[in-house]
Design a protein that fits this description.
Distance between the termini: 32 Å
Shape: globular
CATH superfamily of the largest domain: P-loop containing nucleotide triphosphate hydrolases
Helix content: 25-40%
Number of domains: 2
Largest sheet: 6 strands, mixed
Number of strands: 15
CATH topology of the largest domain: Rossmann fold
Number of helices: 8
Length: about 300
């Protein structure tokens, strides 16, 4: 119960030491709410434990949890080094110890020599790395990242996803990573936790959930296009006869001996083999009303 509203329902989540677990789910599923409840930024019923020790009755700054948001919120009046050291000074670290920790983190982030720079002079990727180092500086037992790459373009997100995984592994930090991007989650994390309507709908390794999603709804959410209420067909398990490119909307079908016989209603050009919501693969040269057969690798079909 959060502020009188039931947003998270009996969420029982355990994250192993040094593990990165990505929290996925559609908008409104409770991803960011979960992080804020753990951090103590919003009131919530229930128990939060860190290393077996209850922390839910502590104020946020005494929970031993670090946070990083999409808006990295670096302090513009402080240089890079002072931004990273901010939390250390608040905790009472002396200057020598603090400077040593900042130098160590800058080297890890491949930002040596950036300490005296203004944060306004940083690129988007550099600013994100500085924000991460600031969150990691006090050596929290848990760091939580809420859509940290959401404001960046696709190329930079791909680069920084690899970098985040490297830095979290290098520091041995336990992490909860919220994102709406399934491919990003699979790069950064070794475990996926999928929320739906405030409940944990699935929990497992990325490869396991991708190849064997427990429900049609989760298969669609993870990006599979060839999903029915009964089974899912990976796009690379299908070949068209004739093997033309494009997608064709179908009116009727028969599935016999590993082949799917379809009547095409409409054809739309596309660049890859595969089905879209059980649309067949054809080409723009195939007219409406013609027939096409799809050959399936039946061993790859996943039944719900």
């Amino acid at each position: 119960m959060i502020a009188g509203n039931l947003i998270l329902h009996n969420v029982d989540l355990r994250v192993n030491s040094a593990e990165t677990a990505a929290v996925l789910g559609p908008s409104g599923s409770g991803k960011s709410t979960l992080l804020r409840a753990i951090a103590g930024l919003i009131p919530a019923d229930g128990s939060v434990q860190l290393d077996g020790e209850p922390i839910h009755d502590r104020p946020p700054h005494l929970r031993g949890v670090g946070m990083m948001f999409q808006n990295h919120a670096l302090f513009p009046h402080l240089n890079v080094a002072d931004n990273i050291a901010f939390g250390l000074r608040e905790l009472g670290w002396d200057r020598v110890r603090s400077d040593r920790r900042v130098d160590e983190l800058l080297e890890m982030a491949e930002l040596s020599g950036f300490g005296t720079r203004s944060v306004d002079a940083l690129s988007g990727g550099e600013a994100q790395r500085v924000a991460l180092m600031r969150a990691l500086a006090p050596q929290p037992k848990l760091i939580m990242l809420d859509e940290p790459l959401g404001s960046l373009d696709r190329r930079l997100r791909d680069e920084l996803a690899d970098e985040l995984r490297r830095l979290l592994a290098l520091t041995g930090t336990t992490a909860l990573y919220v994102t709406h991007d399934q491919s990003e989650a699979a790069v950064v994390a070794e475990r996926l936790v999928i929320l739906d309507h405030g409940r944990i709908a699935a929990d497992g390794q990325p490869e396991q959930l991708w190849s064997h999603p427990p429900t049609p709804e989760l298969a669609s959410f993870l990006g599979h296009r060839n999903v029915s209420p009964d089974y899912m067909v990976p796009a690379d398990a299908v070949r068209a006869i004739p093997a033309e490119k494009g997608t064709a909307v179908v009116r009727s079908s028969r599935f016999v001996d590993g082949h799917w016989h379809l009547t095409i209603v409409m054809v739309r050009a596309a660049g890859e083999y595969g089905l879209t919501e059980f649309r067949s693969v054809g080409s723009s040269d195939i007219p409406a009303g013609s027939r096409v057969t799809l050959r399936f690798d039946t061993r790859r079909i996943h039944r719900f």
